[in-house]
Amino acid sequence: MAGKAFASLSGAPSPDTAPPVDDEGKMADYILARAKRYVQLGDLEKAVGELDHLKGQTAFTINDWKSSAKDRIAVKKALNVIKMECALLNKNMGG
């Protein structure tokens, strides 16, 4: 009985391994592991893309974080455009 209990406990899967096709619960673990890895690498767009594959209660639970991440991505893109415009203005005004 103890063996069965320990067998059901597992750590997070590696983001590099392929998820099982037939088990929806395990699929969410793999998606979350890949999304976590993208966040660690600083790539929020890919992390949000992974989270778009979630379904059911897991998708509902992560929805607030995903919304905040999308807002941050939009702000970062806008900031990059503003920086580019400033650099162009500096170049044009500098001669």
Total number of domains: 1
- Spatial separation of the terminal alpha carbons: 79 Å
Mean pLDDT: 84
Beta-strand residue fraction: under 5%
What would you say this structure looks like, in words?
There is one protein chain. By secondary structure, the chain is mostly helical. It has one domain. It is built from four helices and no strands. The longest helix is centred in the last third of the chain and has 39 residues. The chain is elongated. The model has no long low-confidence stretch (mean pLDDT 84).
Task: Please render the helix and strand layout as text.
Blueprint: H1 2-8, H2 24-41, H3 44-51, H4 56-94
Helix pairs in contact: 2-3, 3-4
Short characterization:
The chain is an all-alpha fold and 95 residues long.
For the structure shown, list the relevant keywords.
95 residues, mainly alpha, 4 helices, 76% helix, elongated
